[in-house]
Each structure stands twice: as structure tokens, then as C-alpha cells.
Predict the structure of DUF2388 domain-containing protein.
Amino acid sequence: MKVRTLSLVVVLTGSAAVAQDRPLVIPQVEGAKQGRVIGRAMACGVAKGRTGAVVTANRARMLAAVGSAFTEDRYLPELDRAIAFETSLPSPSEAACAKAVTAFEALEGLH
């Protein structure tokens, strides 16, 4: 009995160590954050080619991080909602657009 308990502790400790090496990814939170950045950039006139490439790259990154089900059911709906909301707002000011483009370029630079 003690051997099984010790083995379980070793397995759980090893799993926790591996989990600490990878950052926590919550698909719906990432989708909302990235959607806000991309939506604001779109509202400020960033070309569709650039925003589309970032969406595609982030989708692939999310697929690798959490798998197909979480990407399709949680990440993409939140991404779409945030983009739709941001693009439905009135045009941002020049200062807001400068911040939005800077944030978009930082997101674009992750790939």
C-alpha cells in the first residue's frame, strides 16, 4: 500500500512540474482579449490581410495549446464576439488608434 501511495505522489508531483513549464491558457479569455485587439485595429483601418493572418496564426496556436474542441467551442466564439463588438463602435480617436495599432503589432509580433 505504501508503494502505491508513493508512486501516486511521484506521478502527481511530476505532472505538476510539467504543468508549471507551460503557461495556463483559457481559450475564451484569450479569444476575448485577442478579439478586442484585432477588432480595434480593424476599426482603425488595419488591412484585412494583416488582421486575417493574425487570426489564422492565433487559431493555429490555440489548436496546438488546447486542441480542437476548446478552440472551436470556446476560443473562436469569443474572438468573433469581441471583433464584432469592437468594429460596431464609433471610430476611435487618433490617440486610441495609435494605441490599438501598437497593441495589434505586438500581437502580430508573437508569430
Notes: The chain has one domain: 24-108.
